[in-house]
Design brief:
alpha+beta, Gyrase A, domain 2, 4 helices, rod-shaped
Length: 177
């Protein structure tokens, strides 16, 4: 078999160039197709990430709002507890004092008014006594009670023998209450 080569050299080069261009064209189309698929995949994943980000931000905002509500509630409770604590610090239990005062006074001494002054640590008791001896006995019991540092009974209250309107001022030991 004999091969005849009737094609000129220029034509041979042109045919080879067309084959090379065809191969390059196919490679370019394949590369372009892969690039388009890759771009579509990136666009889709970008949309998924943006959606996930928005969802995460909304959940975080919700958690932050809930935490802020709890923080405000805790501050309110702490404020109330502080107020209660302050009220309890200023509370003086007078029930024992009044009970003992009733036993000291007996039946012939009637107390009309008891004024307690926390800042001055004093108490003023006003009332009536049937006799001077009972009033002196009441003052002596107050002195021995341990609630008072000093009791003051004005001299004018001792000058009257019966039906005495008296006023006793006393310094109080606050720790006893």
């Amino acid at each position: 078999m004999i091969k005849l080569n009737l094609v000129s050299e220029n034509l041979k080069k042109e045919i080879k160039l067309r084959r090379v261009y065809g191969i390059i064209k196919k490679i370019a189309f394949i590369f372009l197709f892969i690039t388009i698929i890759y771009a579509v995949a990136l666009l889709f994943s970008s949309m998924l990430i943006a959606n996930s980000f928005e969802e995460t931000v909304s959940q975080t905002t919700l958690i932050t709002k809930n935490a802020q509500n709890y923080n405000n509630l805790i501050r309110d409770i702490n404020s109330r507890l502080s107020s209660i604590s302050e009220a309890q610090k200023s509370f003086i239990r007078l029930s024992c004092f009044l009970k003992d005062l009733k036993t000291y006074s007996g039946s012939n001494i009637l107390l009309d008014q008891i004024t307690f002054n926390r800042e001055k640590s004093s108490v003023v008791m006003r009332g009536r006594s049937k006799t001077r001896d009972e009033l002196l006995n009441f003052k002596e019991k107050l002195d021995k009670s341990g609630f008072f540092l000093a009791t003051d009974l004005p001299l004018k209250n001792l000058l009257i023998r019966e039906d005495i309107e008296f006023e006793i001022t006393a310094s109080v030991i606050l720790e006893k209450f």
